[in-house]
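Hi support team,

I'm opening this ticket because the web form for multi-chain structure prediction keeps timing out on my end. I have pasted the exact lines I submitted so you can reproduce it. The total is 504 residues across two entries, so I didn't expect it to be a heavy job. Is there a limit I'm missing, or should I split the entries? Thanks in advance, R.K.
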Amino acid sequence: MAHPAAAAPALKRTPLYALHLEFGARMAPFAGYDMPIHYALGVLKEHLHTRVAAGLFDVSHMGQIALRPRSGRVADAAQALERLVPVDVLGLKPARQRYAVFTDGNGGIIDDLMIGQCGDHLALIVNAGRKDVDERHLRDALSDVCTVDALADRALLALQGPAAEAVLARLSPSSASMRFMDIRPVLIAGANCLVSRSGYTGEDGFEISVPARDAEKLARTLLQDAAVTLIGLGARDSLRTEAGLCLYGSDIDESTTPVEAALEWAIQKVRRRGGARAGNFLGAGLVLEQLERGASRRRVGLKPRERTPVRTGVLLYADASASQSVGTVTSGTFGPSAAGPVAMGYVPNTLSAPKTLLFADVRGNRLQVEVTELPFVPHRYKRI
Amino acid sequence: MLKFTQEHEWVRIEGDVATVGITQHAQERLGDLVFVELPEVGKSFEKGAPAAVVESVKAASEVYAPIGGEVIEANPAIVADPSLVNSDPMGAGWFFKLKLANLSEVNALMDEAAYQALLG
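Hello R.K., no limit was hit. The queue was backed up. Here is the completed structure from your submission:
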């Protein structure tokens, strides 16, 4: 096991590094950052706490990028960004946010991201491990229309769980009126924040972009609320897996297309064949073809029938004795709220129907797993 | 006689039977356990061979046979409730009992003082 003290010098730190140590975090390298995996409570209890109260996550390692139109018209930036994502960006209303993927020329996924319409610019949140790739990609493709500003001086906190609304409303009453995927500037404890009503746990909650210099004070203010506990990346992973959400690098990457990844819901009609702005994004030929005819494989939920966790990398078989695998688990863990093992993986389209029985090879044993609808734990977003 | 291994297991020797579990330090490092897989009675292990599996939310870890021998009993209570390993690692959270193949292997194990020194 890597010793944090030995690994630290080469790793980047978020503005909350000292706070993590103070709260007893077990730190480990993640995407080039020294990040809290869990705190004194441990992954299991942190996970459960988030589903019943409110969890505070430091996700400052993620990339925050402002895409600013040179013309001053945000529609120009939106239209330009549509070259890189199969998503309706132009139709995104002010103060609204949307999930997207950057596709490449083969229809593979360069990264998944959030796009916020902030009136005069677009606010992008990208994965920590893909920041550099994404920024280069954006500059190469969009510099004629936009400036691409990496906001390195901002931290990102996620406040997630059923108590999140009440907690934030005590500091900033107006935030309670936000709906799922709203995004707007909010003054919280004196800090100029950009708040979105979203997250990656399946729970209601907020993501708060805050100036780095104000981040620790804001975190401490939030932690004064008895409902709020710091949650590490360990529970963040089990929470998003139960919610059926993709982790870049595990469930999606350049070798998977949005259709294979079951992300069709992220591709609005206007970008599909017959839509007013159909195609005209990287890899559109293949992606639009797959949208109509399906792909040969598909990401599905996998519910193991036994108690044994079926983890990332485990091979899937069509029957108990087959020698040739038909798929691979791309995310698998024990789901504390599901009270049992949960997994996702890619299987042939012909084996992707719910209730299809497959076999997972765990330490040489073929364990039954059932293809199932996602998520494992119902989303509880505040849609109205 | 209570002995320990570098892999943070404890071994209680009574006659030619060794009861095996994981230490307080090990259960703290692993975190809350959610799954335990134990060896079948009658199975024999060489010293150092993986004999059981413990899993937290995050990861699976192996528990090794601290000495060679045949499994004569496994603890069904920790399979039914893995949290017993966290709450009582040296007692109700024991894993399995081995009938020792070679008593001299016991000498290679650490006593409590040596194990405490290892933990620092």
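A quick check on our side: Chain B has one domain: 2-102. Let us know if the file doesn't open in your viewer.
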